[in-house]
């Protein structure tokens, strides 16, 4: 980042403001392209993983090698679809909702530390910022369901709002022990604090963090609305939930947002618990960004594995799990990790 | 078989029993319509827990035009009896809905298709035909080619219904300190589950009245793919009906074929050869496995366990390959014939079936590993859609859904046919009558079916496939081309159909989802005079609204899947 600023200010002769704007535009473009690419790659990956788990192949024809071009073909197809807005829909909200959902995850991508010094927005409140902007997704889903003027969509939206607002609490609480350890919300600092091999990753620092990691993992599945917590969609119950009435590109935005969100929560898990860009063996950190992405993809795989293994929970059981199990457990983790820190003399 | 019941009736009602006869061993008593409810009530107390079906027959030439046959079954004594009443046109028959719950829909069907009015029926509306349909399709004077276009949908909940439901829900909150907000009718939402909904797996409709996620009340509507199979059957010869039976329960066509053939054979008074019977057992059990696989995997998909679908469907696909090899098609098998089978097994059938059964074992084991101790699965299915044994009997449940309540009743064991008495197998039962038990009973039944198939393959008898009676079975081709007698037989069978002697017979067997029966009435012309199907899922679905009331939408979906409702046989 500093190198980029230096380049624009010194070599290209821009003033500070112009350099900031230029860098911001460049980073935003990169993020958007990476995000779109991720969505395409992960849809293909999801189909292959699902196929692998379900004793079938998944796409095999498009692009010859294991149907690698299937996701691209799907995207092209969806671009050519008719865009339908129901006559009774609340038009402005109906149009704006998918954008809001996408925006929620896109904004959060800005604070992801890909490699030392390589982060689009190096914020002191990075982690807090990420959780704050992802809340926009709830708003988008609620808006989509309400504006569709369809009972199934409304049910999906209501379930989605209840679920995502609830699960944000254990999600946040699970990361608090890590913040206690680091003493900072800056995403770079959190990763830097995990230097020195696999045993220094926060997930293995103490038993409470280990539990917190799994709590985070479960809550993150609920946050991304994926099975077994896909309440807002619940294909067999609510037809297609909040996006029942969406077609074409607008539907694609929801789709894009789902996979962007999936990768986002996986990257947060990597950043907060799994050592970020550090390799498991100390001293082998020659490709930090690659290491970060590989870990993220593994987390995505884990997520898919869970999705294609477990049945869906019922909506009241989902709430029970959140409020009566996960929130108390994560609270215990926060206190426990604090005590553990003091006992082991790790207080910074 | 049921002499005891008939004797007790005669003791009790004396001369009110107008006639007693036993066509083909089915004991039946005729009573006057005004004594019907007393007789049914007496039979109910005497141990007949279930009204299987009500069959209406139209005789336009008689003064008492309609003949209604009530098929009753006692599980405790394993006995059956039929009660008949004859009524004139427009003369009301007292409704038995207060005695047996299954009478509700059975009588609605008779009312719909024959126009017999029932007095005291709680909800006498059309059932299979559209509510705007005019006339009664099964009456002999309704022309078969006359179609009607009816398009307007029926609203199942009126505003008054919704207001009443809100009031009832408010009354239930008895605690005065409860700060529960009063429900207003405008707080409630009606939602249609179906006719096209991902979880209905066929065209059926349930309209639910919701308070949030909770179902206050549900109402069902069927008939979306009603094509009046029974009217079509009257227009065809007995043998020509066979392909139509494929389309009843399209998940287990072989069972429909075999049981239909058996019912007609019973009406004629012949019995299939041992080899044909053994083959019927084998293909029926394969069919039962397929049906159970479809039901379980669709049920699991409905509760979100999508992966199990492939583990089970791959097996089904593989068994379908064998069936296709056997009879040329996967779904519409049309394999059984009255008096035998269409053709013999192919070479290597034995070995192929054994491999397929091993595949089934692997698939089922995989699924059991995924679900048997899965917390989410148990939370979703245990105590969901519970029905007590008593209610299940009254609603007319049979088959796996009844066995899930703990009653070990299987027609293959307790009213054996096609040589089932020669095979050694168990009757798996549940305890709770919930969705979980229904799934597990089906899983266990597949293991029993496997054992039956293996036994049948081991002692498959040689000998002729078809009975030696060319007035029933088409003569061999050499005989048709080589002898005048053969030509005549062929000609008469093809042009006039099998001359089933005038009379009646109720042939039934254990279908994949319960008692599948065909009530055959013949007037000796070669065409069925009346052919009534007793589809197992029809009475089961009539209880659906009751089962889901008070539950949540996800429970309603899980319950629907476990009942195995096949629209093809539900609507006929």
Give an overview of the whole structure:
The complex is a heterodimer of chains A (348) and B (572). Helix content of chain A is 67%, strand content 0%. Chain A has 348 residues and is mainly alpha-helical. Chain A has one domain. Chain A starts with a helix and ends in a 5-residue tail after the last helix. The mean pLDDT of chain A is 84. Chain B has 572 residues and is of the alpha+beta class. Chain B has three domains: 3-119, Beta Polymerase, domain 2; 159-221, no CATH class; 237-534, Cytochrome-c3 Hydrogenase, chain B (Orthogonal Bundle), CATH 1.10.645.10. Chain B has a five-stranded mixed beta sheet with strand order 1-2-5-4-3. A three-stranded antiparallel beta sheet of chain B has the order 8-9-10. In chain B, strand 11 and strand 12 form a beta hairpin. In chain B, helix 8 packs antiparallel against helix 15, helix 10 runs antiparallel to helix 15 and helix 15 runs parallel beside helix 20 (553-563). Chain B starts with a helix and ends with a helix. The A-B interface holds A 50, 53-56, 151-152, 155, 227-228, 230, 234-239, 308-317 and B 189, 191, 197-199, 213, 300-307, 309-311, 314, 370-371, 374, 376-377, 379-380, 552-555, 557.
